[in-house]
Specification:
About 85% of the residues lie in helices and about 0% in strands. It has about 750 residues and is mostly helical. About 60% of the residues are buried.
């Protein structure tokens, strides 16, 4: 294996074993799919509802693909050309020793572009295949609920596990195969792989989030509040769009989101590991992260297969069963990591770094569970506030969202401090490597986390199918119990996704410093010595200014996304109201036009994609070109801090409002139709775009910005700000960013004029 010059026999065998494990994860996903597809699909009425959900989801994904493909093509060309701006790295020249620099540039350019396409394709596969499997699972969960709680739980969780194992398998396959081919030169190529997965995750997160919450908010405001009918009443024209949205938002969007975190942590760990190889001349620093990931896949397979219900179980036992699987995977991983660190790395620091990551995932799980689960005080307090109206309920939820952010900030800060202490006294690159390995450890249980997340919308869809098909009360109660568990598992995995985004971004931040100093050293700039010793100087006014600009970007991003949801939801409200006036619809004699609401949500969800992507991609390039790479570092720090704060706040507050509504619907404070219930519905609809659209969309946005900065920094260093080409490029960036903002704001203005009956 020429790409692994100097590797021991154990290292060569281990890397090929990791590749085999990647295929094992994919085979496990196929095995579960065969199991699920054998299950009963229920009555014809159930299948009629299911076919409408499936058709709506397919239509959305096909339309989204038409918008994404042209941009992917353009960026593929850009990534190929980028290697001709910056000379090949020393590692690339060493990997392809004897070849001319021009030929090496050609190979690396082709490989980076191909890796970008592969990352985008894998992210798309995780989202699309996972979502389609969720659609296949929901009907079978509804059918199983007619006879057995344990069977319904098992089908729902294993349907979600398929998405989790696709995430594990494809993420490990991409990273390992690139490493096997390119060896020490792989970071140059892995940047393209990570960027492709991250960009697609941004598209799927934003588009799916706008779709699902526009339908959900519109359906709830008219159906529950105005007409006082059940959540998934078949007379509501938006109910199918709402069920479709659960899949395109929570399944496709979240799967792609965690997949790109999985990719990005590998990219940052290998870049920093390569820096350590240059210092220690040992390959173990870049092989260890891949071995950790391989162990994680095996532990997830074992843990997820242990999740089984028992006859007579209800929601508390279901949640306990899911937790047992999670903790079993964590325990297996920790034991395996200990032996790997002791007998391969020959040090305890490597074990502690990944161990801290696992404990971070567990801590975030527990914090999120406390603030969003119906059994704990925060949700109970929100529900109690509903007795005095929607305003006090919303205020209570805001308070809980902010408190949760504070605790998660504290936990993440302690985690980073622990990573620093583990490598205390070592050079800075060791500390940054420790942070990256914490991210690797945190996402060890990706298979479990994605399974828990997909479980939520699968159970929710099954509940909707049961209501629309008028299934037996016992079956409806089983699905309602699963749905309540799903709300909490979704909230937990959102917390993990946000935490992993921050750790991944911090690791990328370290990679950014490493790459910048390496490029400066190659160019003979003395600046690299200063940056290595002082890091990013917050005391510099220009750096502090850019921290402020970076902190402002998540606020702008969130504003534009929430605006989009509000706009689309208002269109759904008007459409549902219009259809409720159709003669015979309220009496059940006439079916509503579900397709119209699906079409409104589909079109609205796609409108914002390109504009928001341009803001995320171009803003770090603009900052770097007009200021400096150190100022760009301050910008990245601001994005990470403000993005994490807003993301946790929105996800937790929204999840708590949702579960407070669920407790009232189960009979608390008068149950469905009461004033308390109406207040809780208002809180839930306010929280919907926060927890399922704006909050989760910040995760891929943070990582897109960091990856773009990592790709652009060497190019920015090579050109002076006064260079005419830089001036033109900066002006174009300003034009495109400003245009994207105006386009989004113009949509809001056009909508308001349309509501007033004015032409536009």
């Amino acid at each position: 294996m020429t790409s692994l010059i100097g590797a021991t026999r154990f290292e060569v065998v281990s890397i090929w074993s990791v590749l085999v494990i990647a295929f094992l994860g994919l085979a496990y996903a196929l095995f579960l799919r065969i199991q699920i597809m054998r299950q009963d699909k229920g009555t014809e009425k159930m299948q009629e509802v299911w076919r409408a959900i499936s058709a709506g989801a397919d239509a959305y994904l096909k339309r989204q693909l038409k918008i994404i493909v042209p941009l992917i093509f353009v960026l593929t060309v850009v990534l190929f050309l980028s290697v001709y701006v910056v000379p090949p790295s020393g590692e690339a020249l060493q990997r392809f020793a004897g070849w001319s620099p021009d030929r090496v540039s050609l190979i690396v350019g082709i490989a980076r572009a191909a890796a970008f396409v592969m990352g985008a394709l894998f992210s798309l596969m995780v989202g699309q295949f996972g979502m389609r499997m969720a659609v296949q699972g929901n009907i079978r969960v509804a059918a199983a609920a007619r006879s057995s709680f344990s069977d319904a739980l098992k089908i729902a969780y294993r349907s979600g596990t398929i998405t989790g194992m696709l995430t594990d398998g494809l993420g490990l396959l991409g990273g390992t195969s690139i490493f096997i081919i390119f060896g020490i030169a792989s970071p140059d190529v892995l940047l393209g792989f990570g960027f492709g997965g991250t960009l697609l995750a941004l598209f799927m997160r934003v588009g799916g989030g706008i779709y699902t919450k526009a339908a959900d908010v519109g359906a709830d405001l008219v159906g529950k509040v105005e007409k006082n009918i059940p959540e998934d009443d078949p007379r509501n024209a938006a109910v199918i769009a709402d069920l479709v949205g659960d899949n395109v938002g929570d399944c496709a969007g979240m799967a792609a989101d965690i997949f790109e975190s999985y990719e990005v942590t590998i990219v940052s760990a290998l870049i920093l590991g390569l820096a350590l190889v240059a210092i220690t001349h040992q390959l173990k620093w870049i092989i260890f992260p891949l071995l950790v990931r391989g162990i994680g896949v095996i532990s997830s397979i074992i843990g997820t297969y242990l999740v089984k219900g028992k006859k007579g179980d209800r929601s508390g036992d279901a949640f306990s069963s899911i937790n047992r699987g999670f903790y079993a995977s964590a325990g297996i991983s920790l034991v395996a990591f200990f032996f790997l660190a002791m007998f391969y790395m020959h040090e305890w620091r490597a074990f502690l770094s990944v161990g801290v990551g696992i404990f971070l995932a567990i801590a975030i799980d527990e914090i999120t569970k406390y603030f969003t689960h119906t059994h704990y005080a925060p949700v109970k307090e929100i529900a109690h506030a509903s007795k005095t109206g929607a305003a006090t309920l919303i205020l209570r939820g805001l308070s809980i969202g902010f408190e949760s952010s504070a605790w998660q900030f504290l936990v993440i800060a302690i985690t980073i401090w622990a990573a620093i202490m583990i490598y205390w006294g070592q050079p800075a690159v060791f500390v940054l490597y420790g942070v990256a390995m914490t991210g690797i450890g945190m996402l060890t249980l990706t298979g479990n986390n994605v399974a828990m997340d997909s479980f939520g919308p699968i159970a929710d869809n099954a509940n909707g199918i049961g209501e629309m098909a008028h299934l037996e009360p016992q079956a409806r109660q089983i699905m309602a119990d699963l749905d309540a568990v799903g709300n909490t598992t979704k909230a937990i995995t959102k917390g993990v996704a946000i935490g992993s985004a921050v750790i991944a971004a911090v690791a990328l931040f370290g990679s950014f410093l490493t790459d910048v100093t390496r490029t400066q050293a190659q160019m003979g700039l003395v600046e690299h010595l200063r940056l290595l010793s002082t890091g990013i100087r917050v005391s510099e006014p220009i750096v502090f200014m850019d921290m402020l600009l970076g902190s402002a970007l998540p606020c702008l991003f969130s504003s534009l996304i929430i605006n989009s949801v509000a706009r689309a939801a208002a269109l759904i409200v008007d459409e549902v109201r219009r259809q409720f006036h159709i003669p015979g619809l309220m009496e059940g004699k006439v079916k509503p036009d579900y397709g119209k609401a699906v079409e409104i949500c589909t079109v609205a969800a796609q409108k914002e994609l390109i504009g928001l992507a341009l803001i995320a991609v171009l803003s770090p390039i603009l900052i770097g070109m007009i200021l400096s790479v150190e100022a760009l570092g301050g910008f990245l720090a601001g994005v990470i801090i403000a993005g994490q704060l807003l993301a946790v706040f929105m996800a937790t507050a929204g999840g708590a409002w949702d579960n407070a509504k669920k407790t009232i619907e189960d009979g608390l404070y008068g149950g469905k139709g009461s004033d308390a219930h109406k207040a809780s519905v208002v809180g839930d609809t306010v929280g919907d775009p926060l927890k399922d659209t704006a909050g989760p969309a910040l995760n891929p946005m943070i990582k897109v910005i960091n990856l773009v900065a990592l790709l652009a920094a060497p190019i920015i260093i090579h050109y002076h700000r006064s260079d005419p080409r830089i001036v033109v490029a900066a002006l174009l960036c300003i034009l495109f960013i400003f245009g994207a903002i105006v386009y989004s704001k113009q949509g809001a203005l056009s909508f308001s004029k349309a509501k007033e009956g004015k032409s536009f």
